[in-house]
Amino acid sequence: MSLAAILDFLAKASYFAAALLFILGLMQMGSPVTARKGIRWAGVGMVIATVVTFFAPSTWGEHGIDTLNLGLMVLAIVLSYAFWVWGKKVPITDMPQMVAIFNGMGGGSAAAIGAAAMINAATFTGECTPQAMAAHACMDTTKSVLAILGALIGAISFSGSVIAWAKLDGRLDKRFTFGGQQVVNLLVFLACLGLGAYLVFALNVPVIIAFFALCLLFGVLMTLPIGGADMPVVISLYNAFTGLAVAFEGYVLQNESLIIAGTVVGAAGMLLTQLMAKAMNRPISNVLFSNFGGGGGSGEAIKGSMKPIEASDAASLLYLAEKVIVVPGYGMAVAQAQHKMWELCQQLIKREKDVKFAIHPVAGRMPGHMNVLLAEAGVPYDLIADMDDINPEFATCDVAIVIGANDVVNPVAKTDKSSPIYGMPILDVVNAKKVIVIKRGKGTGFAGIENALFYADNCSMLYADGQEAANKLIAELKAVDSGGGH
Questions:
Q1: Interhelix angle 95-123/67-89, nearest 10 degrees
Q2: Closest by alpha carbon to 459, among 410, 414, 389, 420?
Q3: What pLDDT score does 399 carry?
Q4: 64-65 and 459-463: which strand pairing?
Q5: Catalytic amino acids?
Q6: Residue 445: per-residue pLDDT
């Protein structure tokens, strides 16, 4: 057996082992208890796949190392390291936009692989022998179709993720619409498909460039009209797109690791997208083809007024309560108040109060955002409850504390058919005996509508920064204990 054959066998075996580690890692990430272990396993798999690629026969040309391939690989690693350093410095409040841009890089990489494969095949002048195909100098029809599909999906994911990042980072308005937008989007998408179909039969460099330009444009147009409240669904959807694109391009490169990893990521991303869409009560067809997140009218006028409460009175309510449910949202992340809120809850638990945290599936700006924040603060996993599990308990809850959450606790989602969020499943905070909302001001949530909960008779507003409010509540609770409070 030749050295090249031995290296090829070892490379394929290593890629398979890396793919298994990806799958095992993803399975471990399904639970907060084992998520860290899962990340490590998947990381080991990625290291194996990366190192092996340097020695795989596909990296070598006929006369030794292909310097172009090697240079591109080194450049990719350097860029990845730069992103890793940046990621370590990103605050938790900016994590959603970091996830969006990282996901976009994955889609862009898949699109670049497809572009390179198509351009190589378009400029290849020799006979398309099995040896030439193995060297990726030319492609058969199957590879051409998958390369084009992967490039299309990857390009859309890349440009769409960049727009999602810009929206989440506050660099773009939440929505951008114009007359006939859906028709324009459809025409651009059909043009992408048309050029892609043409390229299957006749690879041509100018057409390839036009194809990618239109695909990138469609990703931008598809994301511009989406409102920020639906951004968790968008991030999840583009994650699924990226995984699918990687799997297609893995087949083009005959790389088992990319095929398996891309398939797993694509399947997991689509499942998560379905769960997010269900949590927003929006079908996947709306996610793909409508201006979802755009909402409608502002809804019916809300009667009543917001009722402020002092920290001392709020602490007295907590002191007398037996059951307390905390509902965190993005505002808690902005205030970095998760540690102080957990400190407050520990004070309540010491006083033998039943304390739980209620998490809406799309609370924050990305799936699992609140879970990450609470885990960072050291909140035990058994105190964190999902929406479906905790909703029946609000009726027996003495005090519900809402910190930073808005649209996910708005009762008009169940009562006002004219509201943009009508039909969206919410946390039934309004059913609690008493509700305390910690909020810096009277502004609206990400959906841009008033929250009827804040005007409810059983709701009081504690106006303060999240950390400041938690500190005051802790101090006043201790004062009540010592007899100095109300």
A1: 170
A2: 410
A3: 94
A4: unpaired
A5: 407
A6: 54
